[in-house]
Amino acid sequence: MRAAVYRGSGRISVEFIDVPRVGPREILIRIESCGICHTDLKKIEHDLLPPPRIYGHETAGVVATVGEHVTKYVPGDRVIVFHHVPCGNCFYCRNRLYAQCSGYKKVGVTAGYEPAGGGFSQYACVMDWVVDGGMELIPEGVSFDQACWVEPVNTCLKAMGVLDPNAGDVVAILGQGPIGLIFTLLVKRTGAAVLATDTVEFRRNFSKRFGAAAFDPRGPEFETAVQDHTGGRGADAVIVASNAKGVVEQALRISRPGAKVLLFAQTSASERIEISGADVCVGERVLFGSYSADIDLQHESARLVFSGELPLEQLISDRVSLANIERGIALAQHPTERSLKVVVHPQENT
Ligand SMILES: [Zn+2]
Ligand SMILES: [Zn+2]
Question: Which ligand number lies closest to the CA of residue 149?
Fold first, then answer.
C-alpha cells in the first residue's frame, strides 16, 4: 500500500509498505479521508518525535477486515476512528482529565512503524482498545469528508464545557482557521455573540456567514468593537485559537475582569507568553487550557457532525492524494488567501 512516511527533519516520503497485519481483536480500515491537523504539522515541522512514523488522526474510512474475535464491526462498515482512548481507571480518568491518562497517550491506530495515527496511508490497523471504545459508525448519506471532522469537533466541545458561555455573552475568538471556525459555530449555538479575528479575508467571510462579526486583527476596529459591544467592559470570554505572537496578551487585554480565557493553540512547550499576574489575580480572570478529545463527548460530537448541524465539509478548501501530500502539508502550514482545511484522500491515485 502507499503511505506518507515521516522520515525526520520535516521530510515526508511517499513509499510502498506492507499493509499492517491485524490481530484477533483488531480491525484493518481502508482510509478514505483524513484531515491534516495542526498537531501533525507541529510534529513534522519541529521534528518532535523520532521517525519513521505515519501521522494522520482525523480518520474516516471503511472496515476492510476484522480479527476473528471482533464482533462489534463487520467489513464494509463506514467508520470514524479516534487514535486515543483513555483507560477509564486511573487517577486522571477518575477526574475526567482523560488527555493526561498514560493509556490515553498511547496511540491506538497505526499504519506501521511507531504508532502515530496512520491516517496518511491507504490502510491502518485499529488496536483492540480503540475497537472497543474509540470508533463510531458513519450513517448512510454522510460523506467521509464530513465525517473526518468528529475528532476536531470533540476537542472543541470539550473546551466549550469549561468555557460554558451564557446566551447574551460576548465571546471573542482569536483566529478563524478550521478550529476557530468550529468554535464560532459552537458558541453561536449557545446564543452568545461572537467577535472574531483573522488576518485572512476568506476566513473572515466564513466567520460572518456563521453569524460572527469578523475583523482583521491588524487594525484597531476589533478592540474598539469589543468595547462597543460590552459597554466598555471587555469580552466575557476569549478563545485563543491562534498562536500568533502577542495573541494571549491581546486576549487578556480585551477581556473583562472575571472573564474566562481559553488557550487552545498554545501547544509548543518552547513558546513563552508574558502577561501581568495582576490581570489574573486582581482582575479575577480564569486562564485555562484544553487539549485533545473527551471520550464522554464522543457520541455527541459524532451526532453533531453526522446530523449536518455543523456545516464543516464546506471548510475543506483542498483535497490531496498521498502523492500530493507535501503540497497539502505546505498549504496547511502556510495558508494562502483561499486555503482552509486540507484533507488527504489516500485512495486517490494521482
Ligand atoms: Zn487533530
Ligand atoms: Zn486513565
Answer: 1
The domain limits of the chain are: 2-149+312-344, 154-289
Question: How far is the C-alpha of 4 from the C-alpha of 329, rounded, in Å?
Answer: 11
Q: What is the Å distance from ligand 1's center to 195 Cα?
A: 24
User: Measured in angstroms, how far is the CA atom of residue 250 from the centroid of ligand 1?
Assistant: 25
What is the distance in A from the centroid of ligand 2 to the CA of 118? Answer: 23
- Ligand 1 centroid vs 155 CA: distance in angstroms? 8
For residue 46, the CA-to-ligand 2 centroid distance in Å is: 28
Q: Do domains 2-149+312-344 and 154-289 have the same CATH topology?
A: no
> Is the pTM value of this prediction over 0.85?
yes
pLDDT per residue as tens digits for the range 192-242: 999 999 999 999 999 999 999 999 999 999 999 999 999 999 999 999 999
Distance from the CA of 311 to the center of ligand 1, in angstroms? 18
Percent of the chain with pLDDT over 70: 100
Helices (H), the chain: 38-45, 91-94, 102-105, 128-133, 144-147, 150-163, 178-189, 201-209, 221-229, 247-254, 277-281, 298-306, 325-333
CA distances from 134 to 21, 138, 209, 232 (A): 19, 13, 33, 45
- First and final C-alpha spacing in the chain: 14
What CATH architecture does domain 2-149+312-344 belong to?
Answer: Alpha-Beta Complex (3.90)
CA–centroid distance, 132 to ligand 2, in Å, is: 15
Which residues have beta carbons under 5 A from ligand 2 (an ion)? 86-87, 90, 93, 101, 103
**How remote is the CA of residue 227 from the centroid of ligand 1, in Å?**
33
User: pLDDT digit string (tens) for 152-190?
Assistant: 999 999 999 999 999 999 999 999 999 999 999 999 999
Looking at domain 154-289, its CATH architecture is 3-Layer(aba) Sandwich (3.40)
